[in-house]
Every structure is written in C-alpha cells, then in structure tokens.
Specification:
By secondary structure, the protein is an all-alpha fold. It has one domain. The chain has four helices and no strands. The radius of gyration is 21 Å and the shape is elongated.
Length: 85
C-alpha cells in the first residue's frame, strides 16, 4: 500500500472524518474507494439499475395517477408560475 499526501480544507476534513465514522470506515478508505471508482475502466463497472434508485421510486409514487396533456412543458411552466407567485 502506498501513501498519498493531499492538501484539503480543514472543514472538509472534519466533515469527511465524521462521515467516515458514521459509516464505520476511514477517510483513507473513502478516498481509495472514490479514486478506484473514478479511475476504473468502464468495462469493469457493474451496470446501474436505475429502477432501484430511491429518488426515482419517490417520483413514481408522487406522480402516480398524474396525466400530462398535449404540451407537458406548457403545463410545467404554468405549474411553476402558480407555485412561485
């Protein structure tokens, strides 16, 4: 295992340490996993199953039964205008 020296803002380090502690790991392991995922050839990465993403599940739940008309963009603009008046 090689050592790597990084310069990182102190507040970021404090947050990273707290994040790592909450997950029972180390900042070194977090950085290693991040760099591994970032630099791994795309052919080695498992395919993502977006159907299981929590945000998509919530959106499906929130939008259940909603029907859009002929011009969804216009309806969305109207929704935003009502929302932010």
């Amino acid at each position: 295992m090689q050592k790597l020296t990084l310069s990182v803002d102190g507040e970021v380090v404090d947050r990273a340490k707290a994040y790592a502690a909450e997950r029972g790991t180390s900042v070194s392991r977090l950085v290693e996993n991040y760099l591994d995922a970032l630099t791994r050839p795309k052919t080695e990465l498992p395919p993502l199953d977006w159907s299981k993403a929590p945000i998509l599940a919530q959106l499906r739940k929130d939008l259940a039964g909603v029907r859009f008309g002929d011009d969804p963009r216009a309806e969305y603009r109207a929704h935003l205008l009502r929302k932010y008046r």
